[in-house]
Amino acid sequence: MNRLIKWRPSEELLPWRPFGRLWDWDLDEFFRVFMEPREVWEENSCVCPRVESFRHNGSYVVRVDLPGVNPKDVRLTADQGCLTIEGERKRSAEIEEGSILRDEVCYGSFRRSLAMPEGVKANQIKAKYHDGVLEITAPVEGQYLPKKIEVEIQKS
Known about the structure:
Elements: H1 9-13, H2 27-35, H3 38-44, E1 51-56, E2 59-65, E3 74-79, E4 82-89, E5 108-115, E6 126-130, E7 133-139
Antiparallel strand pairs: 1-2, 2-7, 3-4, 4-5, 6-7
């Protein structure tokens, strides 16, 4: 599995670290949690679907995780090289407020905007929803597709 590893310049400057990763803490986030009322930061951090985008067989593909979201509650717009995904995840009407024992699932409106790569034919965008994943595809003009470059190997 490939993962990006955060570069921590403090490790290069201070090899001996008596306080662990103290310099890597996000102090703004740390104090925000204690200074703002709980309702404010819960509302702001709630619904933000995870997205992956890639090129495959001459198309630009975006996959959006939307478990529990009705596809009828999702809107897509493409304008000036920007793809916007909007929608809402609604709590089931059968769940009463006082009966909730644990509440880790976020409900509410969401909006994600992604810059589309150059050459995407926005007028040919197609979307399908299956198993909680919205898949958006659009063809890419041939001139903007990656080109394979041969590397010449010289013997020494």
